[in-house]
Amino acid sequence: MRVEELTSAEFAKFMRKSPVAFVPFGATEAHGPHLPLGTDSLQPEALCDALADRLDGLVFPPVRYGHHSSTRNMPGTMALSYDTLRSLTKDILESLERNGVSRAVIVSGHAGSLHLAALRDAAEDFVRRSPMRLMVLTDYDIAYRYPLPEEKDWPDGHGGIVETSRILAIRPDLVKDKRPRGLFQDKRFMIVANPETCMPEGMVGDATKASAELGGKVNAFILDRLAELVERNLME
Amino acid sequence: MRVEELTSAEFAKFMRKSPVAFVPFGATEAHGPHLPLGTDSLQPEALCDALADRLDGLVFPPVRYGHHSSTRNMPGTMALSYDTLRSLTKDILESLERNGVSRAVIVSGHAGSLHLAALRDAAEDFVRRSPMRLMVLTDYDIAYRYPLPEEKDWPDGHGGIVETSRILAIRPDLVKDKRPRGLFQDKRFMIVANPETCMPEGMVGDATKASAELGGKVNAFILDRLAELVERNLME
Amino acid sequence: MRVEELTSAEFAKFMRKSPVAFVPFGATEAHGPHLPLGTDSLQPEALCDALADRLDGLVFPPVRYGHHSSTRNMPGTMALSYDTLRSLTKDILESLERNGVSRAVIVSGHAGSLHLAALRDAAEDFVRRSPMRLMVLTDYDIAYRYPLPEEKDWPDGHGGIVETSRILAIRPDLVKDKRPRGLFQDKRFMIVANPETCMPEGMVGDATKASAELGGKVNAFILDRLAELVERNLME
Amino acid sequence: MRVEELTSAEFAKFMRKSPVAFVPFGATEAHGPHLPLGTDSLQPEALCDALADRLDGLVFPPVRYGHHSSTRNMPGTMALSYDTLRSLTKDILESLERNGVSRAVIVSGHAGSLHLAALRDAAEDFVRRSPMRLMVLTDYDIAYRYPLPEEKDWPDGHGGIVETSRILAIRPDLVKDKRPRGLFQDKRFMIVANPETCMPEGMVGDATKASAELGGKVNAFILDRLAELVERNLME
Amino acid sequence: MRVEELTSAEFAKFMRKSPVAFVPFGATEAHGPHLPLGTDSLQPEALCDALADRLDGLVFPPVRYGHHSSTRNMPGTMALSYDTLRSLTKDILESLERNGVSRAVIVSGHAGSLHLAALRDAAEDFVRRSPMRLMVLTDYDIAYRYPLPEEKDWPDGHGGIVETSRILAIRPDLVKDKRPRGLFQDKRFMIVANPETCMPEGMVGDATKASAELGGKVNAFILDRLAELVERNLME
Amino acid sequence: MRVEELTSAEFAKFMRKSPVAFVPFGATEAHGPHLPLGTDSLQPEALCDALADRLDGLVFPPVRYGHHSSTRNMPGTMALSYDTLRSLTKDILESLERNGVSRAVIVSGHAGSLHLAALRDAAEDFVRRSPMRLMVLTDYDIAYRYPLPEEKDWPDGHGGIVETSRILAIRPDLVKDKRPRGLFQDKRFMIVANPETCMPEGMVGDATKASAELGGKVNAFILDRLAELVERNLME
Known about the structure:
Six copies of one chain form a homohexamer.
Chain A: H1 8-15, E1 21-25, H2 39-55, E2 58-59, H3 82-98, E3 103-108, H4 113-127, E4 133-138, H5 139-143, H6 161-170, E5 181-182, E6 190-191, E7 205-206, H7 212-235
Parallel strand pairs in A: 1-2, 1-3, 3-4
Antiparallel strand pairs in A: 5-7
Helix pairs in contact in A: 2-6, 2-7, 3-4, 6-7
């Protein structure tokens, strides 16, 4: 159930069931030559819809802008500052509380360390003031637990086999047929003004091996694991 | 063309044409018993899609949270602070600039005075530092110029005949058949903690007279006028 | 009674009557070739003095700096940022509360939309935490309700017939004899770095028709209406 | 010449002479049972008027709110936060610069250490970015250099003999006939929530010995010394 | 060479060699029943001293407060907010630049994700404005690459075998003889107000196996690897 | 007892005695050609250690960065902004409170007026929310009460006879044998971008007369006076 499609009265009625609130945090970010800029929005939005279906929860409107370090200078990346993203998270959490939400899950499609730090910083501060039961995670915390055949030469990452496969399963029309391989160039702890040079191909891993079938399996794996976690954490 | 659906390379190629960037700013807000909470997102997103089609522009990802004063305490309203909304606008403008955008239009579906002030505050500051040609408006600045038969008893406003008609033209499945009439209760310059009492029906105007036909006309009127303004302001 | 002229003990004694506190917010802003830079300070200060006389209230020290968009680059305009003005308003409201004020009226002589937004933003936030009964308005919200003969060719505005007349009634020595006519040049939603071009004459309306007599009537009209509103809102 | 009384054009014309800008920073603060709450506004405003007369300078609109530590809880004290006062100072300095001011003097009537720190903090930051020649002082930096007969039992301070005498010379109608003596109670470096206990009489010194004559001498002394400093610092 | 022990003139002379600046960021944090609260300060300070010796660099004064999430409520933990830590980092980087430093390494003893995010956030912003060559790391990024015999039952972490061994090598007098074993209790993405429950023993790993000998080896390993990285990154 | 050397459990046990917490605030600042950059850290750290010994208190980790105005551009000075220093103080005070500290003393080695204002600003705000008994001072508030033979030609100040003598008593190895004399050049209330010109010698006073013996006496004088004040203020 998408909050955006409910009237105020329907929403108020639904809230009497104390549903779990799912808030998808996406991003607009370069994802290599083969994946769309909305890749990190598509994944958590599809996941939250599926979770809400299964657990009779509510999906709140998505956020489609995030914080980006390494891809910041690549064409199409739209980057919020840490502070903007944290304030946005804080305001959304406070609005959830004002609406009587008592259990919530923030799912971030983007897994950048500062991006996640902004979400967690807001969340840690919030739970000190609120009794809300709250989870914050990126679906990639779970995705990378899916047992893949090892790819020694092409360790998987941003825009790689897992991500490409997942988008093939969600929106195949948006994935290019020609898919690259890319390696991550370690910066050895240097903080640089051109961090995009760490990804010469704009992505990391072997996307030639991606498939909608694998993507479907990974998506189902994440959905099952996360639904179980939500039930244990928030609904018992 | 939606930025979210382009790859980084496609986006970079499209940018060579110096397209106008359209950024729809929506909201999640109570809109009476008959309209969905996403009403203020649906309108500017549909409008920006149509504008981009007509003018060969680019639609950037929508923002679906805004600032709300009078409806803040109504079920389903999600409210950002002024500062969060302003920072978000600032960061989006700076990201547009980093991506080489030289002409942009921010279209806000919500017309609250502090909401618009936040957008304009960020924009005024931005244009002092940037050569970007920039428009900021709410589609209601134009919508209310559409010549309606006068409704003395039910002066139109939030969730009234114009807004209901427009949503009937965009997403009729989300509008309830039972539609109310409401009057605005003037607060006589009082600043109060329960501002929602200014709208006892949660809306203002006579929505019983709304129709998809009228909505279609208003939407076309806005599209024509705004396309013309964009051409004169940004494309000549 | 002006707070500035009372001793601490006299103030404390006066406070036992729970008087209404009036706080005039002025500005230092270009007002065409005929009006002084302090125009927006003179009006609310005179009004607050008269209101306090009539309603046995207290006038707190004036603020004489505000936020300015369109006149920002004109000679003599002194402009605060939105944040400074909001903080100032917040601190004044909190000081009023610490002093035991339970009813207050902020009267702004300047009517810029971001200027008023800053005052209201601070006030909305404040009333959520405080039981104070609070009004925030610009005297122009009332002034423009005064029935003037229609001036189709010279729609009235900043520095026009009403404002010039009011200053003629308050401080005629500060008004130049040679008074202009000016038209507002619509920017069609453009946000520009040189917004002063919207007022080529530095003012809007037909100031040649201004008179002290008209100004006196408008001032009396505002005083009467506002005194009545204050009584109904705060003193019943 | 008071900026508030000039039109925009008159101001622009006057600016061609590169006049020194004087900005009086006052305060609204309890000053014992005998002095008005506006004491700290009256002094720098009178001084700036006299300085501008003598040196053909411009007086900008006064600020009448400041930062207060020890008197914060006394009736009638209106207190800004450090940040608000600093932002206000910053915005005024930047507006001066935008108006072409190249020499300026901020004169603060209040001499609290955090109050002055806020002014200086803004000023130090400003001069790193601006070529403006800028002085920041409180008139009490000079007042206490005036040779008084020593008062061992009643060391002079806030609301004492100097301050009472100065107000007697400026606005005798606002000074009560019954004047107190008070001692400062040292807090021995304690930071306390009730700092007003350091002044049981609400003032410090022996105000019974104050006179308009002495006040006139002190005021003239300050004017002479400061005019000389301004000439040496800013006009050579 | 410790900056604190040099005079201004000696410092200026040393700077002519363009030395690498090392800035140790420590913390004050509970580290189990056996390790001192200054554990995270001792490690990077010893490391920076050794690096500066080997590479003829300068050690700047240590910071001994950091950001803490999981141990925040444990006795003795002193926690800065993200913003304070980021501002501190920013100010130190800008002071380094003002002093002519062109190569710098920030070494953090604490490895919390928000703590490191604060350092990196400041650093990423800084390098966009400055040509300084800058590394930011925690010594634990390297420490955990040291090949340890696997401890399946007691996976190593905060206060575990590596950290205890390192402190045994640096300040054995501060390590208690009785050393615990602890397991990390996964919170399954919950953000909670009592995060310390993730470490019932206050530490993670098997500290009973710690030894000064192992600590010496790990410290030497880190020193060698990091010295090599600094040479390649900053000195070639 | 240094907090850094205690385990979490030892700290918790010690806290049962409600000890006074001493927090030394140092600085890294040019102190003339003869004194080390850490001069302002050495003094309060030694003093806090001695105070804690005498009064059975706890010394918290030192801060070694401060705010600097006049020496900001001298080699080796590391300067925090006012806001960073205030936030740091605030966070430390809140951490003390979270740890159950009920009496605390902040001792600052640096006595700059904005530096002290930042500490006091944080402290004044804090005590309005907390019952903690709190002292904030610089040891120079006491040092300058020590009766010195008068030095008319070389009035003492930054890096002068008192400060040099104190460092000679604490760390004689860090003081150069060749010691200067310097005069303070009054800026006559000018706020300038090159404030270091107020100290052509980088110091103020006659350091040629400094001695370890005098330093020892001054240090003992401060220790005695301050211990007595702490007992009266916090321990009775």
